[in-house]
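Hello Y.,

Per our agreement to keep a running log of every chain we model this quarter, I'm adding this entry. I've kept the format consistent with earlier entries: sequence first, then predicted structure.
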Amino acid sequence: MNSIFGQHRSRPFPTPRYGILLLALVAGGGWVRGEERAGKTERPEPPKVTPKPVASTVASMTPLSGPPTTEVTFTGTDLDLITSGTYGGLALDPDSLARESPTRLRARVPLGAVAPATFTFLSNAGPVASPLFTLTFPAPAVTGLSVPAGRAGAAVAITGAHLYGATRVAFGDVPATTFRLVAADRIEATVPPRAVSGPITVTTPGGQAASGTFAVQPVLTGLEPQAGPPGTALTLRGSGLDPLEAWVRIGDRWAAILGGNADRTELTVAAPAGAAAGAGAVTLFTRGGRAASPQAFTLNYLAPTVTGLAPATGVPGTEVTLTGANLAGVTEVLYGGAALYPGTWRVVSHPAPRILAQVPFNGGNGTFTLRNPAGGAESAPFTVTPVHSRHAFLDQALHPRWTALYPALDYPAASRTLQYGYAWPKAPIFHAYHPWREDDPLGAMRPDHDLPAKACLNLRLPELFREALPADVRAALGALAVAPAPLELYVVSQNQPYAAPMLFRPHYWLYPDLGYQGLPGDNRGRQAGMGLYGGAPFHFNGHAAGAWLTGEATATSAHHAGPSEEVPTYMINSPNNLQVTGLDPARTRAVWSIVQDLLNPIQPGRTAVTLHLVLNDGDQTALEALLPAQRSVRGLLAALAGDPVLGASPATAALQGLLRAEP
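Predicted structure for the entry above:
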């Protein structure tokens, strides 16, 4: 075989002037480049050959729909050449791309996907798209929280199922400003500054799910001013300060809550009367726990003065207004030298400080005396005009009051004292103990009755009306040997806000203030008896109609906040919390009750007979429109009879039957 590059050529090439380019096929294969000039030879490099890219194709996928994190299988050609992909613009997790073969590929829908989209895969030949994948969102579920309570800014992990696509996380009704979907069954959220205690809700395209109660822990960072007399408005600063669930104690007294700001970073309270003079610790209680202020508040008393008394004459039971100075610090009110019981007088701060006090029903002419640790003051005389007949009572003045009630109990309202700043009843009442729960609506408030403003009728009748009571009520009083002096007769109206049987809570009437004002005794160790009357179908569940029940009182916290050992137990649960049968939310009813306060340290045998006018929504609305214009009991009766709604109401018939009766 002849070689053109050997020492001996059988047929030499001619040599041009500038050399010649020779191309030859080397025996080993490939091309070489040589240049011969003046006897020199160089070998050429081979040309680069770029193979033509092969395009991947997607022929089908399964499933065609599903929630985020669904694994989808694709079939096609050259799928093993795919290097990455996206879904609706979201990058696919590289670990979720499984290239099983040139014809089979698996990928997972991203956790953060929120809308239907196609998969787009990338390879050397360019992008290739899948058919449309339809996202579905099953209903979410929340099964747990990493912590049951936390302060603003704390991290909370929410666990459950189908949490993908979450668009909102809320603490109570306050949305979280920061939350992150970690997995399909886990969200990490930060407690927002305005958070309130309650369920944490997660909203997804599939619906909404709620946790159990999450308690927002309060924080106190300071207060101002740090000294002043009772009634001084203190501003507490911190976080988690919700006026609807906060209780504040200054020294050994509870302060009235006056309000707060929208961010729940400030809470305004009134310095309480009755606390010892000097510095007292300021402690806040909520469902989330308690917080102590770094500063104390120093309480300074100033002796009260009385400059006005109105009216100066009236029947027993008349409520008078006492005006003057330093009245917010009054700790005791006397009439005719005898102390008035808490609940028969109260301090009102707005629009100007004044004291409302009730002339005793068994009292004669006398003066009011106001006292506090710094001194006392006496009013001008009050002249009692006796009521000699039930007919004369109808001309007595009527003073309607509107109150915002908490916690939506809809009971007849009368300010209790400044222990909480909320309204409390003068008589035993019906109400539901628990908030509305869809899984257990019995005895629960309807959700549309949250913090309503209601007009409630609350009448105290003279003992003259005892003979006008129904026969079964009079018979029960006779069996109990109730004397005239401790007998109290009431008429109270309340809206019917309940879904089913209501609870009867007479302990509100059993002097819940006892023990707060330095009077002897407290509500612990008390005893009560009670019964419902007016005929079937009204009775306590499990007891016959008209049954008389007695039992020892059970001391419980009045402040549902913090450990029980840190909250006084001045409110009692006598044999109450009893569900009542025979009340229908759609029907107005008139129910009679008798409650006897046994073992009362001041008034043994004190007994209340109450006509409860339990109104449906229609009658309640009509009463709210009618009451503001009424100025006397007689005028009220006439207005009720002439009202197109209340004229036919069983409540009006019961009230007319009681008040119109003559000896």
